[in-house]
Amino acid sequence: MRDSFEKIKNKRDILNTIKLKNREEYISTRLQKKLTELNTLNQYNISNIEISIYKPNTFEKILNQILLFKIIKKFLNIKKTDSQPNFSFNTNTIDKKSVKYKFNFSHLSSYLQKKKLINKDNDEKKNNMDKTITKTKKTILNINPKQNQLPIINSFFPLMKAVDLYDTLIVVAETGAGKTTQIPKYLFSMGYGRLGQIGITQPRRIAAINVATRVALEVNSSVGLLVGYVIRFEDCISNLTKIKFMTEGILLREIINEPLLLQYSVLVLDEAHERSIFSDILFSLLKDLNILRSDLKLIICSATINTNKFSKFFSYAPLFQIPGKIYSVEIYNSKESEIDYLDAVVRTILQIHIKSKQGDILVFLTGQEDIEIVENIISKRSKLIKTLMGQLETFPLYANLSYNLQNKIFLKLPTNKRKVVLSTNIAETSLTISGITFVIDSGLCKLKYFDYLAKYETLIVSPIAKSSAWQRSGRAGRTAKGICFRLYTVDTYKFVLRKAIVPEIQRIEIDSVILILKCLGINDINNFEFLDKPPVESVFASLEHLYILGGLNEEGQLSKLGRYMCEFPLKPSLSKILIISNFHQCVEEILIICSILSLESRIFNYNHLNNVDQKQVLKKFTIIPKSDHLSYLNVFREWINNDFSINWTDRNSIDAKIMFKARFIFEQLLGLNQKLLNSQKIGINKTNPTMIIKCLLSGLFMNAAFFYSANCYRLLSSSTVVSVHPSSLLLNYNTKWVVFQNIVLTNKEFINVITEVKIEWLIETAPIFYNFKKHMKNY
């Protein structure tokens, strides 16, 4: 095999014309590089072991490095024999008489897996494993009688056997099977916790917290001991933690610091069908890691999944099907399309409440704003009928809701009350709410889309996919027969809804992903093996944006600034703003603003206010130049001066939940900033905000717009005309130039979180990006 590489190396001119498979080229290059690094490291470690400068507890880590070196060396030096696959390099550019070489990874994987199974299937080991699984199952049956009613218990023996035999396993489980809570417990009971941590990823923070709490309760432990969780800006684990729930972004950041993830013995990627952008990157990275670490078990779990696509991507990994216990669900579609879907939701809720004697209701809405509108209407109308049919009690559920309020959806109400859960698509698969008999499916959800031509991201209300419609209806049949009311026609389901949701990586901005891949040394983004490749235009737009921000150099390599940007759990633009603030003596101010912006939620609560009262609230926190960003800063400072009072937030129509979250994030970012940049908590005079705005421009200069007409501006990036959002301080305040945080698309395009700027500041901040001469002619 080594001779094969030497012959190819001597033909560089030929090699340039050879089209190797992306995965083969990527893996072989990474393995050779890793082999060289480990060789140098191991020689150094061994020489130091001889003179005994290491402590005893470091020997295990050194031995793991030596073992990894041997594995890679053996992997790259496989010799051709009759019993092994034929490694030939097939290309028409080489003379037919010359020897053909090819590093055939699919054959190699099949051979290694076959060899591994032969070794594992000796009688003694097989019998011992079977006895262990059987004994463990009996123990579980005795300890957890309630959990043993879940369908997954019937698959315990074959599931644990499959985990033992295969390095990668795809588990397909129907709704209600118990995969999310029970598989981590089963793995721990089989002893995988003694080999390292059992890591489980969830696509949402709320799911990671709730599942960790549930599993901890089932194993008679407190959260943070045997079972813990880690989400952005918050961790609840200890040295005793063996079952660790986390969001996908957390695991991705752990790979940056520890590419081999030696702390884990098993990784479970749950809810894989949701296809978040971070999960897609994890699929690719963990697929390669599985080659280097044969001791690492990788389990892909999902309620619904494109099984053939996933199995093929993971080198035809085996599929394991777990049947669920779903009761029959009657589905009723609207005869005509609903013009006002919120009104249709309210009418359906009240009709169910009047005509049906029992059963809770789960309603799927698009977002927080719609949830609050429906909640207010229901609370008023239900008072008129509560004496006849009992009382309706509504419970909101969305991502930015506090954990205590989220947890209320699991409370059991008295028999004279009916629970109505108003949720976003969070409740499709991530959470299970007992007692739900009725589901109202609006057929809509909010999705982010990135316009790579205009270079901005919008949040669009879109029709759901058929897979989501199936998931939503299944929520009504968990404990008994249920009914699902779909507020869209049968024809809409058949001809409008797509089969599956578009993966995030193909529709949103991928700046953060590219920055992480660059940190991992993966520079050839276009040839990186994705499960679904992002659009080439989106990749180029992100590379351009990162270069302009200073995260990449002219060769597309990660810059020093980019490395620091990658360390902050923020969008690259916000990370850049925060780093720049360290050099302009406004760290504290920028930390506060970034903390609030990272939540992507509004801090003012206008639902109960009319337009006059709303203006009075905004006026309290307004300064010149007018700025929503600076108003956030002023609100936070006034809140501090009032001792973080909830009464103060209520009086000023400010969302206390968002403020407390922002305070927590501020403290986390402050500590991280001091650790990375050795910066102190330095502020400037709040009456001189120019420097703060210039720092904001260092990351937002691409989001500039100039005056077009009353409450309308034209974007510099695309010449699109946009409107000022009604919640902005700059509504009815016309100025020549502004920058904005995001664009919201409803009935028209709105810019939101806006700051008044001067053209000179834009030129000073980004002279290369904008050629303002043509714009300045009119001013």
Average pLDDT across residues?
Answer: 79
Domain module tally: 4
Binned strand content? 15-25%
Morphology: globular
| Derived structural class | alpha/beta
Distance between the termini: 68 Å
Show the helix and strand layout.
Layout: H1 2-9, H2 12-15, H3 22-50, H4 59-76, H5 105-120, H6 123-143, H7 156-165, E1 168-173, H8 179-189, E2 197-202, H9 205-218, E3 227-231, E4 234-236, E5 243-247, H10 248-257, E6 264-269, H11 277-292, E7 297-302, H12 307-313, E8 319-322, E9 329-333, H13 341-355, E10 360-364, H14 368-381, H15 386-389, E11 391-397, H16 403-407, E12 417-423, E13 436-441, E14 444-451, E15 456-463, H17 466-474, E16 482-486, H18 490-496, H19 511-519, H20 536-549, H21 560-567, H22 572-581, H23 587-597, H24 611-620, H25 628-641, H26 646-651, H27 656-677, H28 690-700, E17 704-709, E18 712-715, E19 721-724, E20 737-745, E21 749-757, H29 759-765, H30 773-776
Parallel strand pairs: 1-7, 1-8, 2-5, 2-6, 3-5, 6-7, 9-16, 10-12, 10-13, 11-12, 13-16, 15-20, 19-21
Antiparallel strand pairs: 3-4, 14-15, 17-18, 17-20, 18-19, 20-21
Helix pairs in contact: 3-4, 6-7, 8-9, 10-11, 13-14, 19-21, 21-22, 22-23, 22-28, 23-25, 23-27
What is this entry, summarized?
By secondary structure, this protein is an alpha/beta fold. 44% of the residues lie in helices and 16% in strands.
